[in-house]
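tool_call: predict_structure(chain=1)
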Amino acid sequence: MQPIFSRNQDYTKIAFLNWRIDKWSDILNMLNIADGFMRSAIELAKFSANNNEDKAADILIFPVLTNANHGIELYLKAMTWMLNKIMAQEARIEGSHNIRQIYATVRAKIKTYGGSISIKDFNEKTENLDNYIEELFAKTNATPKNDKMDFSRYPLDQKYESHFYVDQIGNVEIDLENFVVRFSETYESLKSLTDFLYHIELRQDHI
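tool_result:
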């Protein structure tokens, strides 16, 4: 049996785990992995929308949402780390998996870091993301003590209580075409913000 971690004779059929990863570039590594999670969510949603005769989307939506939310988490944590470095703070990654909390942390740092991204610009660029986060937390019935970010990875939480879609009477639906549009926009916004922070402001600050 061929090992999973092995090469193919055709290099275009090989995934290289370390081609975009560098031991000296911690933040860039996070951004590259965030890129992978977000792109995989969007591509899988596109595939599901276009190949759903067998209703596979009903199960593929769970990794779609998991990857989308984890991509958001990584982008926001990378932003936090970069802003901390720009402000000469020792903290690196802050927060757990609560993307609402991490988003609020980034917004607070944008207000005070003194760079080229104003809070007005940030709010405008992340309006779509902010709306999604608020919708998500309302839909999952999240609380400050239980963010329920595991809803797409498990059907129940750590107390073995079902997540919102398990017990709900009636369908819980996601428009896949709308998902692709919304998350493509969110992806581009997060990528634009992090690219600017990393390649312009962080580099400039450390020249």
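agent: The chain has seven helices and no strands. Proceeding to next step.
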